[in-house]
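Next up, sample data:
>
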Amino acid sequence: MALTINVANSCTILAVRGRRYDPASTSADLTIEDLGGSGSFTTTMAYDITTGRGSINIPVSSLTAANGAFKVCLSENSIEYVCKPVLIKCDIDCCLTKLTNELIDCDCDCPRCAKSLAKAQKIFLLLQSAASAVELAGSSDTITASAYYDEMLAKYNKARELCDNSCGCDC
């Protein structure tokens, strides 16, 4: 892979690894676009001169949003070579944790428990679908990938909407 992106340390770090496309390049520009419309963040990743590979850890706090759907693009000398999607979803993971804790506390099949379970299932399935869109977008051509970016954002936004005030971590 020419560009690998991982969310690490409980959603505090975006770890990016890449390899150069232009043999003369010593660095790449990384643009991280918030697909939710909050803007973008740009930084530079240096390449190792001998291997042509680079890596950088970007604090999530420096991005335009702490959670959401993002598009990470690698450019060298103003030429964009590759873009990959990433989903930072700790806010929704926390919501699912709270809902799961509510379910653990339920000792019957009461309506409240059924409602919490149904809500948790919907949110979980939306996140799984968004994660699938991330995988598909990362392995698709540019035109097809655009539809997967839209799908990833829509599924994430719907899951966040369902979480409403069910935040369980950093409220």
Remarks:
- The beta strands are 3-8, 13-19, 27-34, 39-46, 53-59, 68-76, 79-88.
- The first helix runs from residue 90 to 105.
- The chain has two domains: 3-88, 90-163.
- The chain has a mean pLDDT of 89.
